[in-house]
Amino acid sequence: LVSRENHAERSVVRVGGVPIGPGTMTLIAGPCAAETPDQTLQGALMAKAAGASLLRGGAFKPRTSPYAFQGLGEAGLKILADVRAETGMPIVTEVVDARDVELVAEYADMLQIGTRNTQNFALLQAVGDAGKPVMIKRGMSGTIEEWLMSAEYVAQRGNLDVVLCERGIRTYEKATRNTLDISAVPVAQRLSHLPVIVDPSHSGGRRDLVLPLTRAAIAVGADGVIIDVHPHPETALCDGPQALVHADMAELAELVQALPPVV
Ligand code: PEP
């Protein structure tokens, strides 16, 4: 279902009316996690001013340590919904448990499947039934074929509104949090008709790499990028070191403005 074999044209997925697909280079940006109403709104305004059309933000956070901030749950979803009402930006947010899909789908415009859950097949089937577009991160140790099979689980439930997101894979290299597999973008676009975007924030795990990796994503023909921003990353409860700050926004805006208009 997700292969280009029977579907030669590349697909456009619309999220709250915002297209992601061939020729769009959609900018999704916002805080890693919704922490407070003010921090989420400030992050959204930074993102919007730089040209983002979709707001990212986690309410359910999958963390390596059980002692780390796990997200605000439904309170975080409510904050995101308030910020959507104020900014007009549709929301992309993660769901980590099949039991929460109905709840998260009440608030989200696109459901995000994180790298740790890319092969959680019960969760993939549940989001496939939820009637909302789905974004699937590549598993940090997953092959491109496994990633496409994850999308197939969603598509099998009758939901073809699926976006693939390359977010870096685990390699021997320790200089970056993950290794951005930039070749995965054209490879996946040739194998599948689904849009393919890049997460330069979780790939590099470092603020200074986000804009260079965004340039790489644009150069290779990605259909969008998803970027962490934070008004005060020194106090962030989650992934502060990779969040773009106010001082980075002009350069991000310049990159986005240089892109051809969406047709
Ligand atoms: C995220 O985007 O908030 C996230 C946790 O990403 P990943 O699943 O790629 O680590």
From TrEMBL:
GO terms for biological process: aromatic amino acid family biosynthetic process. It comes from the Bacteria. Keywords: Transferase. Residues 17-258 form the DAHP synthetase I/KDSA domain. The keyword Transferase applies. Coiled coil: none annotated. The keyword Transferase applies. GO terms for molecular function: aldehyde-lyase activity; transferase activity. This is 3-deoxy-D-arabinoheptulosonate-7-phosphate synthase. It comes from Actinocorallia herbida.
